[in-house]
Design a protein that fits this description.
The chain is mainly alpha-helical. It has seven helices and two strands, in the order ααββααααα.
């Protein structure tokens, strides 16, 4: 892909060089003009046409950059918000998985485990003029059920096997 891009740029610059070389009389001719704003007239000294074209080309690049400036800041803010949302969802998912495992009896509840899983959400939430979103995972209630009542279906099977004996 990089070779193809390089090849395309070589073709473009070759074409530009060919146009300039074949039209040297136009690009190397000097012209002087005046800027008239109605109130005051500004004379511009004699410059080559190539220099005038380059000045207008680069001024167009600067104007396009400035018009795109606000859109880039909005995009950065949106990316920060989305990364914050992703981080909070990952935290909530980790807490819910540990809660499911605790209820199944696979692992014992450890308070330190939740602290190691949490991501640094507050670092990405420092966006100007906006309050950080409340994390719904912090509101979840955790409770420990006794192992005997954790699986009601298992109790029914135990009772039916006891009755058969």
């Amino acid at each position: 892909m990089k070779k193809a891009t390089l090849f395309i740029w070589v073709i473009i610059f070759g074409f530009i060089a060919l146009v300039i070389f074949q039209n040297q009389t136009f690009f190397l001719a000097k012209n002087a003009f005046r800027l008239n704003f109605g109130v005051r007239e500004y004379p511009i000294p004699e410059l080559y046409n190539a220099v005038i074209l380059l000045v207008f080309f680069f001024s167009g690049l600067i104007i396009a950059y400035l018009f795109n400036f606000s859109a880039r800041f909005k995009a950065r803010r949106t990316i920060k918000k989305l990364n914050t949302t992703i981080a909070s969802h990952i935290n909530e998912l980790a807490e819910l998985k540990s809660e499911i495992n605790t209820l199944k009896g696979i692992e014992t509840p450890v308070d330190e485990q939740a602290e190691t899983v949490k991501l640094d959400v507050n670092a990405t939430q420092k966006i100007a003029d906006e309050s950080p979103a409340e994390n719904s995972a912090d509101k979840t209630l955790k409770y420990d059920a006794p192992l005997e009542t954790a699986n009601p279906a298992g109790d029914d099977e135990k009772e039916s096997s006891d009755k058969k004996e």
